[in-house]
Amino acid sequence: MRDISSLRPDIEKCSEGHKSLVLEINRLLDLYQREMEALEAVYDVMGAKPWYIDFDDYGNITRCEWSDNYRKKLGFTDENDFPNSIESWIGIIVDDDREMVLEKFWAAIKDPTGKTHFDVKYRGRKKDGTIRFFRTAGVVRLHDDKSSNSFIGISYDDTLNHKSLSGLKEQYEIVEALSRDYLNVFMVDIPGKTATILKLDGYVTEGFGDKEKKSYPYEPFAAQYIKDRVYEEDRGALTKAMSLEKVKEMLAENDEYVMGYRAVDKGEIHYYQFTYLKLQTDEGDEKVIAGFKNIDGIVESAKERALLKELSERDSMTGILNRGFGEKTATQILGGDNKGMFCILDIDDFKHVNDTYGHNTGDKVIKKVATSLEEAFGEESVVFRLGGDEFAVLKKDVASKEEAKTYIDKFFDIIDHHSIDELKGSKFFASVGVGLFSEADKDFEELYKKVDSCVYVSKKTKGNILTFSE
């Protein structure tokens, strides 16, 4: 902070006629000092310090001086690492935001009145490549002739605030969408093992319809619903799928967990779907929103009712098999006298794809992986989505690691030459685990665990990596 003590006139050396003026000057200097101290406190809270850019009368940059605080925020150490030049700042701005930021910056610089404010939010890339949300604001100080002289600005990391606001918006949209589209909506507290009713317009599970009571133990609630309502052939799969352990596992790295199943009402079979979605809270609690809905209504005629079975077996985003039916099919294949390969994969740093390019682009990546797996493994394979960015494939009659590797290599080649324009040439990678099974292998759960552990080994190395189970 600038030292202004030298600016204070000595009242003892002033004449009586000037003392009132000196007192006023000192009062104003005291006010200025307090305001500067307050500014310094604000800068400290935000983790920001001012930086300066000087211009000549023609708008040419004559000096650029970044604060050490700003450099450190970006992961740089000193002037050699992040030079005092406008190009240094421009270089860290993400491509999609750069034109907008510079347009507003030069508009402020070129305003001869100095009244155009520069205050902009944008994405910036730190030295280590991570994307953060920044806010930069500044003012132009003018020459007496009103031409621009210097620009004083501050920049601070606004990522936490940005995520908080966007997270609240997303959560509001989640609850609003479920309330609109689903008859029954619940808040599930995983650590507390409870289900709280948010909306109950459809079927009410026996023993859980007390209007005065909103929260129930989750496991008995789910078990009673499955016993009373779910089609007999689907009860086993749904008991596993709706268990808190499975819900927690599916939402550990994925934003949503969706599955279709059949329900019985007065002897008639209907098709239902549940959706579990993460809900972030200030306390960091592990809570999710769960919605249940009848999907018969999407059928336009009785002749199309047969298509409901396929719908309940398919992942709504990609069109490939969903987890429930994929695992059921794989279990049936292992129950026969078959041999082949089973693989699990997930997309590396998928959260980074969503954060950097947006969820619409992330959805395109998910769909591209699904179609690439179908293309690489062929029609006789069982390709299904486990949830989020995780997939699985089972293919019969694969007898060796070499043969299995040819299918995986074909998949790697397809995604390596993807055509997703929104990624702007950036690549995405997959970590893959593979296990071979023989006629003697009957336990799908055991095979799944062995292959899943191989995925974690593959993820230790960047790129498209394949690991075989022993």
Task: Describe this structure as you would to a colleague.
The chain is an alpha+beta fold and 470 residues long. It folds into 3 domains: 47-157, Beta-Lactamase, CATH 3.30.450.20; 159-313, PAS domain (Beta-Lactamase); 317-470, Reverse transcriptase/Diguanylate cyclase domain (Alpha-Beta Plaits), CATH 3.30.70. 40% of the residues lie in helices and 25% in strands. It has 14 helices and 16 strands. It has helices at residues 16-46, 68-73, 86-92, 95-109, 159-181, 218-229, 235-241, 244-250, 307-313, 323-335, 350-357, 359-377, 401-416, 444-458, and strands at residues 51-55, 61-65, 118-125, 131-142, 148-157, 184-189, 194-200, 215-217, 256-265, 268-279, 287-294, 340-347, 382-387, 390-396, 430-437, 465-468. The strands form 3 sheets. Strands 8-7-6-11-10-9 form a 6-stranded antiparallel beta sheet. β3 and β4 form a beta hairpin. α11 (350-357) packs across α12 (359-377) and α12 packs antiparallel against α13 (401-416). The longest helix is centred in the N-terminal third of the chain and has 31 residues, at 16-46. The radius of gyration is 31 Å and the shape is elongated. Mean pLDDT is 80; it is low at 164-169.
